[in-house]
């Protein structure tokens, strides 16, 4: 099933065109990594797909025109982890994670057993259940990131869009998160994540979409997308490309001369 279909997407920020006719589709079971240099349009693509910024083109979510989809219905299909990690209220970790269940509940309704199970599973998967009663505002940056990821997981949507989800996480939790995203895809969901770490993207994603200057320049399996020539032309770096038992190894070495 096609979870998200984008056709000829154009978007501008501050009057400056950022996306120039991007088209892509995300299927069940895919873990798609959006990669590209700073300013390429990765975050803008995610925000436009969610309807958070104006855009032109066609966006379909689970086969339905997103332009006519109510916000609550959209939230049942798409979970979003924004790049910003700010938490504005000193609510408990458990309360913050429970907000992920809002799209599934009538206004002001309490949580049922199914909601509680999803919340517990999300906290366990992100290893935040041990400090469930602490105010979320008192946490470290990495802990806040994990709590916000848990909130997105509790939403239990078929498709998760994550903007730089590994930012602020230590290496152990970066790998844990990427393994989790890969597991979600293997369960039949879809995950789209913007990533700067090419090594993590190459090892864990089933598909990479390379964006440069608001256009898709490559789309396919990691080994097909991450070539030395492309890394040189798009990122301006020389890189070591190799193989390990766990998959492809990508290591930028120097700025291209």
What is the secondary structure topology, with strand pairs?
Layout (H helix, E strand, L loop, with lengths): L1 E12 L2 E12 L3 E5 L6 H8 L6 E6 L2 E2 L5 H7 E4 L11 H6 L14 H13 L15 H14 L4 E5 L7 H16 L3 E5 L3 H7 L2 E6 L2 E6 L1 H4 L2 H8 L1 E8 L2 E9 L2
Parallel strand pairs: 3-8, 3-9, 6-7, 7-8
Antiparallel strand pairs: 1-2, 1-4, 4-5, 9-10, 11-12
Helix pairs in contact: 4-5
Report what the structure shows:
By secondary structure, the protein is α/β, with parallel strands linked by helices. The protein folds into two domains: about 140 residues, 3-Layer(aba) Sandwich (Rossmann fold), CATH 3.40.50; about 90 residues, 3-Layer(aba) Sandwich (Rossmann fold). The strands form three sheets. A six-stranded mixed β-sheet has the order 6-7-8-3-9-10, with helices on both faces. Strands 2-1-4-5 form a four-stranded antiparallel β-sheet, covered by helices on one side. Strands 11-12 form a two-stranded antiparallel ribbon. The mean pLDDT is about 95.
């Amino acid at each position: 099933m096609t979870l998200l279909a984008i056709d000829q997407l154009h978007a501008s920020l501050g009057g400056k065109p950022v996306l120039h006719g991007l088209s892509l589709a995300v299927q069940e079971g895919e873990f798609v990594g959006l990669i590209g240099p700073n300013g390429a349009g990765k975050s803008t693509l995610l925000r436009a797909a969610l309807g958070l910024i104006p855009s032109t083109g066609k966006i379909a979510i689970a086969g339905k025109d997103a332009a006519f989809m109510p916000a609550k219905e959209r939230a049942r299909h798409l979970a979003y982890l924004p790049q910003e990690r700010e938490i504005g209220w000193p609510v408990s970790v458990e309360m913050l994670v429970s907000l992920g269940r809002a799209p599934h509940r009538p206004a002001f309704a309490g949580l049922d057993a199914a909601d509680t199970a999803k919340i517990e599973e999300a906290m366990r998967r992100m290893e935040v259940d041990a400090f469930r009663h602490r105010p979320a505002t008192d946490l470290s940056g990495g802990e806040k990131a994990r709590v916000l990821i848990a909130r997105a997981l509790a939403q239990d949507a078929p498709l998760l869009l994550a903007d730089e989800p590994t930012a602020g996480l230590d290496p152990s939790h970066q790998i844990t998160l990427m393994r989790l995203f890969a597991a979600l895809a293997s369960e039949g969901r879809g995950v789209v994540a913007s990533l700067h770490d090419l090594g993590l993207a190459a090892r864990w994603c089933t598909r990479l979409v390379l964006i440069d200057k608001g256009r898709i320049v490559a789309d396919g399996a990691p080994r097909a997308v991450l070539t030395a020539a492309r890394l040189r032309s798009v990122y301006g770096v020389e890189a070591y490309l190799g193989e390990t038992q766990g998959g492809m190894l990508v290591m930028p070495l120097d700025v291209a001369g």
